[in-house]
Fold:
Amino acid sequence: MQKHKFYIKRCLQIAKNGLGFTRPNPMVGAVIICNDKIIGEGFTSTYGDHHAEVNAINSVKDKTLLYKSTLYVTLEPCSHFGKTPPCSDLIVKHQIPEVVIGCIDDNPEVAGKGIAKLKASGCKVTVGVLEDECKAHHKRFFTFHNKKRPYIILKWAETKDGFIAPIRHNDFKVSEEVTSKLIERLPQPR
Structure:
């Protein structure tokens, strides 16, 4: 299990290369291992282009090694046709015997169907390795599909005592910056 965690962590690292480019697709990372050596890696390309699994398989120089390799991936391989063919079909085509998945894709178009397709082909599938970390990584994608809205990050500055607007005293505006005070003279009424 430690080995599985190690490679899923690597998948999470390389998945971040897709940040800002893959939407509405998830930022997936994939690693292919043969004889305890990484022989291929990939992350999801710009929307409409290759998924992580395809990029990882394409990066393998000697494709004859795939039949005795393990594919690690942060999210369940897709099983439906969209802008690209299903990744699960490509994994089956290359006869990759083992797939280790961080978390299940709860998009209704996938939701276990990719895993079922892999198992039906005789592939050994392990699900839930670093599941919490993978779900946290895919929070933008899951929010989009489950809540039908974007994942929102809110950022603001506030004073030490919890105010977000400047305090006014007579003809001066006093606002406290995060690191220092700023005082400026307000325009005088005529």
In short: Helices lie at 2-15, 52-59, 87-93, 113-120, 131-137, 139-147. DSSP finds six helices and eight strands in the chain. The radius of gyration is 24 Å. The longest strand covers residues 37-43.
